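Sample entry (372 residues):
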Amino acid sequence: MSRRELRHFPSGNHPAIEDTAGSWPPPGNAEILLVTADPYLRGEVERVVAAAGGSLRTAPDVAAAMREWDNADVVLVGSDIREIPPRRRAPAALIGRASEGDGLWRLATALGAERVAVLPEAAAWLAEHLSMSGAPEPGGEVLGLIGGSGGVGATTAAIWLAQGAAGEGISTLLIDGDPWGGGIELAITTEDVPGLRWPDFFETRGSLDPTQFRDSLPVSGGFAYLSWPGKREAVTTADASAVAAVLDAARRSFELILVDVGRSGEGLMALAWECDRMLILSTPQLKSAVATARLLSDLPPVDTGLIVRGSGTSAVDAPLIAESLGLPLSGLLPEVRGVAAGTELGRLLELGRRKQVNRFVQDVLELKGTRQ
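Predicted structure, serialized as tokens:
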């Protein structure tokens, strides 16, 4: 919502109030100032704020609002207000009634209001807007990892990078992007760590409170993770609106979000296009390089680097592979004895403490600009 564009949000196009204030209550710390002498508008806004959370202060006119204007997180003005104080920021929204017609938009333009909210029709949008006003701005970087061909170690690399980033003091979230991968948590730990998994977010609409989202997730190795359940039950994929809500909350509550995208079509569509950067993994063999080249055409047009997996004897081929693909070489994923068994036994984090893994992690984090 950084663009200042005049909009009207009619009912039916946005989540209902109960959806935005149900299982994920809003932060409840936004200071909201409403300037109006209209008892109807005041009552409607009070009802919305009660659903969305926050602290509401009211003033009947501009003179009475002067003291609170600059201290409020959000300023709303009613359609009975005809001017705003000089050298004060524009109101976030002009609140009016449907019966006022096009005059609302002319008044909003004159006042410099960013949006128009016609009540009660736009109550759902206003509730969501207010619930996010006290939340931090989205600032986390989303870095996606994907295998150019099957079995090249994208999940292993994602886990080790998350572990390494957390060790550097970077608040990190690892997202499992493959519903058919068996659950990334099975490679991280043998314990049943409490926290929410992907199916818990299937019904998500609107916005998630970033603080509660972060605190709801399981943690291991110093980083939080969002996994598909490591169980035999059949799974269904999350729809685009749920994925968008999760990624928005992740950006607001973590510095680095690593996404193990997976090679399914759904993963590419729903998650890869949410990434700010991508890392694609390959082995220094012709077949893997050709498969990687084919996959590149399906990836989003973002900054993409290459990780090559191989032993020290094959590392000489890595620059040639990168050059042939037209990608910068971001790192070499080492061949570590016991990775297959460690993945099966939930002990991959133990292997992530080895020196060669640490060198790999440091190389990638430095080149990708995530190290603090």
